[in-house]
Amino acid sequence: MKTFLFTLFATALTSFAFAQDQDKVLIRVKYAFSHLPDTTNRENYYKETMMLIAGKNASVYLSYDKIQQDIEARNAFEKQSRQQANVEVPTFISPPKKKPTNSMEIFYFANQHKFFIKEQLVAFYLTEEKVEKIDWKITADTQVIEGLKCKKATGYFRGRNWTAWFTEELPFSSGPWKLVGLPGLIIDAYDEDSEVSFVFLGLEKIDEKAKSIQNTSNDFTVKKIGSSNVLSQTEIQLPTDAIKATPQEIKKLKEARDKDPKKFIKTQMELVGLGGLKQISPGKMGIPAQIPVFNNPIERSKTLSPNP
């Protein structure tokens, strides 16, 4: 397994030579995400606040809760840096996480018909996925959601029958997760089994002339921790800190993680040049010591047709 990891790392550190143009951020949308991961326990839904950051031709979907946690962690490190300005060997303690969050980020480039999925498995990985067109059926039904006039559309995607409410008042073809391709922003979406839902929580429009906010006020500024800078960024672009991988390679990595979390973390830390650090427990890396039951993924099928 170690040989596989180092081979993957060596062949993937070359820069991504993708042709995706940077797209100006025009809107940020928050959703209440709900998912039933275990069908044997229908009382236990996973819930998280998510965010869609969109431009005319691109978007990125990620956890808003994680953004807030990363901002808190960055602020904590800056504070500890100031307090230990004269300490020869400073120590840093990351603030405890209030709840688990999703580290996945989904980049959508409409003109190139591609998704890029960024995942953290100690190291960051980036996989490419072709956007498969959803055969949306737009109905005559309408409703107003938070002041936005919305139309109803239905479609089958990845093993589920979806209902989406979208608004042409916001002419973005994006939506939460991988639900895209309608002539307006998707405001609400849910599957017919009520196992997955994305509920609109509000939006923020961004001035196209806005400039990125940079804090250069003192020597204790931490440039970035996770997604802590995303709310000050004015352009959507692919990350440069991820290792290129295929879906098959990601599957292998997750199987290794689930089989032996401690060994997996050790190998991953060696991979990114942190092998000399003290061994970190799986829990502190966001990997549970015991993998929870997960028998109901959002993508129940890779096919687009309900009758493949």
**Total beta-strand segments:** 14
Q: What structural category characterises the helix and strand content? A: alpha+beta
What gross morphology would you assign?
globular
Helix content: 10-25%
Unreliable parts? 1-19, 275-282
Count of DSSP H/I helices: 4
Account of the protein in words:
The model is unreliable at 1-19 and 275-282 (pLDDT under 50). Strand 3 and strand 4 form a beta hairpin. Helix 3 (247-259) crosses helix 4 (261-271). The protein is an alpha+beta fold and 308 residues long. The radius of gyration is 21 Å and the shape is globular. It has one domain. The protein has a twelve-stranded mixed beta sheet. A two-stranded antiparallel ribbon has the order 1-13. It has helices at residues 2-12, 64-83, 247-259, 261-271, and strands at residues 23-24, 27-35, 46-54, 58-63, 105-109, 114-121, 123-130, 137-145, 148-157, 160-167, 185-191, 196-205, 235-236, 243-244.
Which secondary structure elements does this structure contain, and how are they paired or packed?
Blueprint: H1 2-12, E1 23-24, E2 27-35, E3 46-54, E4 58-63, H2 64-83, E5 105-109, E6 114-121, E7 123-130, E8 137-145, E9 148-157, E10 160-167, E11 185-191, E12 196-205, E13 235-236, E14 243-244, H3 247-259, H4 261-271
Helix pairs in contact: 3-4
Organism: Flavobacterium microcysteis
Keywords: Signal
Protein name: GLPGLI family protein
